[in-house]
Structures are given as C-alpha cells and as structure tokens.
Design brief:
The complex is a heterodimer.
Chain A (H helix, E strand, L loop, with lengths): L3 E4 L2 E5 L4 E7 L6 E7 L5 E8 L4 E4 L2 E6 L4 E6 L8 E8 L6 E3 L3 E6 L1
Parallel strand pairs in A: 2-11
Antiparallel strand pairs in A: 1-3, 3-8, 4-5, 4-9, 6-7, 7-8, 9-10, 9-11
Chain B lengths: L3 E4 L2 E4 L5 E7 L5 E7 L5 E8 L2 E5 L6 E7 L2 E6 L8 E8 L9 E2 L3 E5 L1
The chains are: A mainly beta, B mainly beta.
Chain lengths: 112, 114
C-alpha cells in the first residue's frame, strides 16, 4: 500500500529565502506526482504535475523534482514571499489512475 | 466562475441526523471524487465516479452514499451521523484518469457533528 510522507510538518522562513520541501513515497510504481497548495479554509490548488517519465517541472518560482527510484520528490521555492504561506501537499497517482495518495503536508510560514 | 462548487460550506448537526453535501463542476470533466480530510489533516479518497459509474469505493461505512445524477454532479449523503464523521469533505473532478490530467478541488465542506 502506497504511503506518502512529508517532512518537515511545519517550516518557518524569513521572506526572500529559497527553501525546499520534501516528499517521499514507499512504492516507486507511480504514474505521476503532484504538488498542491492549500490555503486555510480553502480547497487544494494544483501547482505542478510531474509524470513518472519526467525528472522535474517548473512554474515561475516553483521547481519540483522527481526521483522515482529513490521514492522522493522535492519542491523548491525561490525567493519566498509572505503570500507563499500555506500548506503544501504532495500526492502520488497510483496504479488504477483514479486516485491520489496524499501526504499530510508541510505548513509553510514566510515571515515578512 | 467557480470550477468545482460544493454546498454547504459549513454544516453543524446533531448525532443521528441525515445530511447531504452537494457538488457540481462546470469543467466538463467526466470523473468526480469525494475526499475526506480528518483532524490529522490526512486527505483520503472516499469515492470516485467516472461517467456516473462508481469506480472507487474505499473502506467507508455504508452510511455514506454517493449519488451522481449526471456527469457534472456528485452528491454525498450521510445517514445516522456520528461524532467521528466530523471532518472536511472535498469534492474534486478531473478529465479521465489522473494518469496525465490534473485534479481540481472544491473549497471543502466543514462538517461538525455534535
């Protein structure tokens, strides 16, 4: 059974810092991996989708990498801003393709 | 224009009651989902429908019954509510499988059972 772990559970950084969020998964037989952002009282917004054949994806200040063999992904946020404060969740697409397995998320606080 | 909308956003009800949460998507997607996020923040799939047919039914008490009247709607009905049902319920949709397509979430329905 696929399990997804995100470390750390919470992270606080000063504005302007570059930071890395980590995600690991137990079963490397994945179709894809997605990073989401969840704001308090809101739903999830998809940030980046990496297919299993890809190594990374970039969108603006965000860069997500995938190392399927080691069961790891990282989300790199450059020049962090207070508006980046949110919970970031990692999810993997499992065989069957109709469901995602989520981690618990990393709560990021960017201090002005 | 909200892509995935669910109502109500907040619901407080007593144990033993029956309640429904409605979900609608205007993205033209053919697959819809219900996820539950518990107090520990774990987000878990409950149900998935593709073209109105149930394709995923995780280990969920049979007090929970999804209903999909058409591809754009997936409602969740809960009978005999229990304290442990208190959680945030998210509706979501995607086009086809999640093999290559991203998933869109609603803003959640906060259910509190007292």
């Amino acid at each position: 059974k696929q399990e997804v772990t995100q470390i750390p559970a919470a992270l606080s950084v000063p504005e302007g810092e570059n930071l890395v969020l980590n995600c690991s998964f137990t079963d490397s037989a994945i179709y894809n991996l997605q990073w989401f952002r969840q704001d308090p009282g809101k739903g999830l917004t998809s940030l980046l989708l990496i297919q299993s054949s890809q190594r990374e994806q970039t969108s603006g200040r965000l860069n997500a990498s995938l190392d399927k063999s080691s069961g790891r992904s990282t989300l790199y946020i450059a020049a962090s801003q207070p508006g980046d404060s949110a919970t970031y969740l990692c999810a993997v697409g499992t065989p069957g393709s109709y469901q995602l397995t989520f981690g618990k998320g990393t709560k990021l606080s960017v201090i002005p | 224009d909200t892509a995935v909308s669910q109502t109500p956003k907040y619901l407080v009800t007593q144990m033993g009651n029956d309640k429904s949460i409605k979900c609608e998507q205007n993205l033209g997607h053919d697959t819809m989902y219900w996820y539950k996020q518990d107090s520990k923040k774990f987000l878990k799939i409950m149900f998935s429908y593709n073209n109105k047919e149930l394709i995923i039914n995780e280990t969920v008490p049979n007090r929970f019954s999804p209903k999909s009247p058409d591809k754009a709607h997936l409602n969740l009905h809960i009978n005999s509510l229990e304290l442990g049902d208190s959680a945030v319920y998210f509706c979501a949709s995607s086009q086809g499988s999640l093999l290559r397509n991203t998933i869109y979430f609603g803003e959640g329905s906060w259910l509190t059972v007292v």
